[in-house]
Design a protein that fits this description.
By secondary structure, this protein is of the alpha+beta class. The chain is built from four helices and three strands, in the order E-H-H-H-H-E-E. It has one domain.
Protein backbone atom coordinates (compact mmCIF):
# COMPACT_ATOMS: atom_id res chain seq x y z
CA UNK A 1 0.00 0.00 0.00
CA UNK A 2 1.10 3.52 -0.72
CA UNK A 3 1.06 5.99 2.16
CA UNK A 4 -0.70 9.33 1.67
CA UNK A 5 1.54 12.35 1.33
CA UNK A 6 1.80 15.15 3.87
CA UNK A 7 -0.73 17.05 1.74
CA UNK A 8 -3.43 14.88 3.34
CA UNK A 9 -2.62 15.94 6.95
CA UNK A 10 -5.76 17.39 8.59
CA UNK A 11 -7.73 17.11 5.36
CA UNK A 12 -11.37 16.15 5.56
CA UNK A 13 -12.62 13.63 3.02
CA UNK A 14 -16.31 14.03 3.87
CA UNK A 15 -18.18 16.41 6.12
CA UNK A 16 -21.69 17.24 7.31
CA UNK A 17 -23.12 13.81 6.52
CA UNK A 18 -23.23 10.23 7.67
CA UNK A 19 -25.39 8.96 4.82
CA UNK A 20 -24.00 5.85 3.16
CA UNK A 21 -24.58 7.28 -0.32
CA UNK A 22 -22.35 10.25 0.60
CA UNK A 23 -19.63 8.46 2.56
CA UNK A 24 -19.07 5.60 0.12
CA UNK A 25 -18.04 7.70 -2.91
CA UNK A 26 -16.06 10.14 -0.74
CA UNK A 27 -14.05 7.40 0.99
CA UNK A 28 -13.59 5.44 -2.23
CA UNK A 29 -12.43 8.53 -4.15
CA UNK A 30 -9.87 9.40 -1.46
CA UNK A 31 -8.48 5.87 -1.45
CA UNK A 32 -8.46 5.74 -5.25
CA UNK A 33 -6.47 8.97 -5.36
CA UNK A 34 -3.94 7.74 -2.78
CA UNK A 35 -3.71 4.07 -3.74
CA UNK A 36 -5.73 3.13 -6.83
CA UNK A 37 -4.60 -0.50 -6.79
CA UNK A 38 -5.98 -1.06 -3.30
CA UNK A 39 -9.20 0.81 -4.11
CA UNK A 40 -9.84 -1.34 -7.17
CA UNK A 41 -8.99 -4.50 -5.23
CA UNK A 42 -11.78 -3.62 -2.80
CA UNK A 43 -14.36 -2.97 -5.53
CA UNK A 44 -14.42 -1.84 -9.16
CA UNK A 45 -15.32 1.85 -9.54
CA UNK A 46 -18.30 1.01 -11.77
CA UNK A 47 -19.77 -1.25 -9.08
CA UNK A 48 -19.32 1.47 -6.46
CA UNK A 49 -21.13 3.90 -8.76
CA UNK A 50 -24.07 1.54 -9.29
CA UNK A 51 -24.34 0.83 -5.56
CA UNK A 52 -24.26 4.55 -4.72
CA UNK A 53 -26.93 5.14 -7.37
CA UNK A 54 -29.25 2.58 -5.78
CA UNK A 55 -28.64 4.06 -2.32
CA UNK A 56 -29.32 7.60 -3.53
CA UNK A 57 -32.49 6.60 -5.42
CA UNK A 58 -33.96 4.68 -2.48
CA UNK A 59 -33.93 1.52 -4.60
CA UNK A 60 -31.30 -0.20 -2.46
CA UNK A 61 -32.07 -3.61 -1.07
CA UNK A 62 -31.14 -4.67 2.45
CA UNK A 63 -28.20 -6.51 0.89
CA UNK A 64 -27.07 -3.24 -0.79
CA UNK A 65 -27.21 -1.39 2.53
CA UNK A 66 -25.26 -4.16 4.26
CA UNK A 67 -22.65 -4.15 1.50
CA UNK A 68 -22.28 -0.35 1.60
CA UNK A 69 -21.95 -0.40 5.39
CA UNK A 70 -19.31 -3.11 5.22
CA UNK A 71 -17.40 -1.31 2.45
CA UNK A 72 -17.36 1.95 4.39
CA UNK A 73 -16.86 0.91 7.99
CA UNK A 74 -14.73 -2.18 7.52
CA UNK A 75 -12.96 -2.23 4.22
CA UNK A 76 -12.50 1.45 3.27
CA UNK A 77 -11.89 2.75 6.79
CA UNK A 78 -9.27 0.03 7.33
CA UNK A 79 -7.59 0.80 4.00
CA UNK A 80 -7.64 4.56 4.60
CA UNK A 81 -6.18 4.03 8.07
CA UNK A 82 -3.40 1.95 6.52
CA UNK A 83 -2.52 4.68 4.01
CA UNK A 84 -2.85 7.62 6.42
CA UNK A 85 0.04 10.08 6.39
CA UNK A 86 2.75 9.57 9.00
CA UNK A 87 1.49 10.60 12.43
CA UNK A 88 -2.17 10.63 11.34
CA UNK A 89 -5.22 8.46 11.76
CA UNK A 90 -8.33 8.22 9.59
CA UNK A 91 -11.83 8.59 10.99
CA UNK A 92 -14.42 10.98 12.31
CA UNK A 93 -12.99 14.11 13.88
CA UNK A 94 -13.06 14.00 17.68
CA UNK A 95 -15.18 17.18 17.83
CA UNK A 96 -17.40 16.50 14.80
CA UNK A 97 -18.62 12.96 14.15
CA UNK A 98 -19.80 13.91 10.63
CA UNK A 99 -16.37 15.12 9.54
CA UNK A 100 -14.17 12.27 8.28
CA UNK A 101 -10.56 12.70 7.31
CA UNK A 102 -6.92 12.24 8.17
CA UNK A 103 -6.21 13.84 11.54
CA UNK A 104 -2.84 14.47 13.13
CA UNK A 105 -2.32 12.36 16.26
CA UNK A 106 -2.10 14.63 19.30
CA UNK A 107 1.09 12.92 20.44
CA UNK A 108 2.84 13.38 17.09
CA UNK A 109 5.39 16.18 16.63
CA UNK A 110 3.98 18.14 13.68
CA UNK A 111 7.39 19.75 13.06
CA UNK A 112 8.58 16.36 11.86
CA UNK A 113 6.27 16.68 8.87
CA UNK A 114 7.42 20.09 7.63
CA UNK A 115 3.74 20.61 6.82
CA UNK A 116 1.52 23.50 7.89
CA UNK A 117 -1.23 22.97 10.42
CA UNK A 118 -4.57 23.34 8.67
CA UNK A 119 -6.66 22.68 11.76
CA UNK A 120 -6.72 25.83 13.84
CA UNK A 121 -10.00 26.08 15.68
CA UNK A 122 -12.76 25.88 13.09
CA UNK A 123 -13.98 22.35 12.55
CA UNK A 124 -13.46 20.87 9.13
CA UNK A 125 -12.33 24.03 7.44
CA UNK A 126 -9.61 22.07 5.72
CA UNK A 127 -9.80 21.26 2.04
CA UNK A 128 -12.69 18.91 1.31
CA UNK A 129 -12.20 16.34 -1.41
CA UNK A 130 -14.81 14.54 -3.47
Amino acid sequence: MRRASEDWVNVSVSESTQFLEDLLPAFYSALEEIDPVTARAIMAPSKVGRLVGRLANDSATEKDVDLASWLIYASLCDALSAVAPAGCWFGAHLDDSACFGFWLDEGFDEDELDAPSFFQGELCHAEVLG
